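Consider a typical record:
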Amino acid sequence: MGPTPPQPPPPHTEDTRVTQLPLPGGAEEYVRDSIHASLGLPVSDRSLRLKLLASEDQRHRLQDHVFSLEEDLRAAQRRIDVLKAEAAMNATGLRRCVEEKEAMAAAYADLSDKSSKECRLYERDLERAMESCDDLARENDDLRARLNQNADLAALMAQVQELQKEKEILKMNLDTAEAEVVTLSEDNRALDEEIKRLLGLLEKERQRRSERKKSASTSTKNKRKSSSLRAGSPAGRALDFGCADSSRHPLSPLPHNSPDYRAHKK
């Protein structure tokens, strides 16, 4: 069935006349195209092109808006990620601060306990020291009373002087003994050198004996050398300690009435 021809407009009468109001440019075309579409009439190419351009423009606007929204979404996601990272860092720092505060509190409690224990120990030691001081003060008073009551103070002074003399004699003997120790050290050093030399000679003698076993032709020569070495070896010479002994001074004798002399005599 083909399109129906347009009907002529009804005659205008006084009853059917309506005041026509002016419409916007686009609205009039939209109303006309809607009427044509409802009646099955073909729509003009110009209207289709305009609608296509309008839809393309709307699509571009919507696409730009979508892109803008996506960019805003990505920026918001980045801000959220940054805020999450900052929150995680803040939480880690806060956790560390809490752990450090807990560790400091535990260390402070330990130090407080140790300080309390040490203070108690110091107080106990102080009490013991005060008691010891009191005991020493009483002993000092007793000794002072005994010294005041002692009538043999002069005898004690004489004994002190004798002890001073014995001290001087012992000091002299100690100096003499130290000098003798130095002399003996030098003698020991000389003995060590002599022993080293003798050991070297003994090693040479052993080497000569081994050579003597290997070569029978040189046995007579080695015997003469060994005999000459024995004759000139310092092993046969005795060390002369008489000079060292003659240079030593005898120790000073102790007084007969000294405590050391009496102890030595017993």
Observations:
- Residues 7 and 39 are 11 Å apart (CA to CA).
- The helical segments are 25-39, 45-149, 153-214, 219-232, 242-247, 259-265.
